[in-house]
Structures are given as structure tokens and as C-alpha cells.
Amino acid sequence: MRMIGVYFDDPGVVEEKALRSKAGVLLPGPVMAEVASAVGIGGAVSVTRIRGGEYAVLRHVGQYSDMRTAHEWLYGTWLVQSGREAADAPVFEEYLNSPKETAPGELVTEIGLPLG
């Protein structure tokens, strides 16, 4: 199962307590939101689409608590030096291993920055 986090706001602009995000799983094809009620979990499940297109992907190895530094480098260094622009779409993180089975310093996360 491919676990992800989707981030809708820029933490450099939006106060931390107001940041919006979703945790979820990547599914291989179309999904109907009605599946949530069919399995008895009410409105706790929703479907969010991640747009297709070009992404800059940064692989981060290390603790989740260090992810902010990785995001800052991707936006503040790579994006500026690349001459590219970020698209008006959410950033996502894909968690390639589990903190239940992996030491914090060995966690692997890919950050996907949508490009315009």
C-alpha cells in the first residue's frame, strides 16, 4: 500500500495551526466515494485527486522531523535555480517505508512538487 500526505498550504505563508493536509493511500484507478459508506466508515473517507503532469521529486532519507528542511531546499534552492515555476496544485509526500519497521534515520520519503 502506497501511503501519502497531501499538503494544500505553504507553511511560509499560512500559520501552522491553519495548515490544511490529508493523509491517504494511492490507488491505481478511479474510486467512488460511496465506498466509504459501503464499508461502514461513514464520511471519514474521501477521494482526492492528485493532478497529472510534471513534478520535481526530492528523495529525503531521514526523520520526518527533518522534512521541513527538505521542503525549504526544494522550494528555496532547487526551484529558484531550475528556472521553473511551481504549479498551483498541492505538494505531496509518498512514504516509501514505515516508521513501524524502519529506524527514524532510515525513513525514505519522496516529495512531489508540481511544476507549471
Descriptive overview:
- This protein is α+β, with helices and mostly antiparallel strands and 116 residues long.
- It has one domain (2-114): Regulatory factor, effector binding domain (Multidrug-efflux Transporter 1 Regulator Bmrr, Chain A).
- It contains two helices and five strands, in the order E-E-H-E-H-E-E.
- The mean pLDDT is 87.
The domain tally reads 1
SSE order in H/E notation? EEHEHEE
Give the terminus-to-terminus CA distance: 29 Å
Q: Which radius of gyration do the C-alpha atoms yield?
A: 16 Å
Strand order, sheet with most strands: 2-1-4-5-3
Q: Strands, helices and their partners?
A:
Elements: E1 2-7, E2 21-26, H1 35-38, E3 55-61, H2 67-82, E4 91-95, E5 108-114
Antiparallel strand pairs: 1-2, 1-4, 3-5, 4-5
Looking at this protein, list some descriptive labels.
116 residues, alpha+beta, five-stranded antiparallel β-sheet, 5 strands
In short:
The chain has 116 residues and is α+β, with helices and mostly antiparallel strands.
